[in-house]
Amino acid sequence: MKTLAPLYDVETIVPILSKISIFGGLNDTQLYKIFRLLQRVSYKNLDYVFRQGDAPTHIYIIIKGNVRMLHEIEGNNYQLFEFGPGNCIGEDSVIGIQPHTLSAVAIGDVDLAVIPKKSLLDLYKTDSNIFTLLILNIARELSRRLKSTDNLLLHYIDKRSHPY
Question: Is 90 exceeded by the pLDDT of residue 11?
Answer without folding.
Answer: no
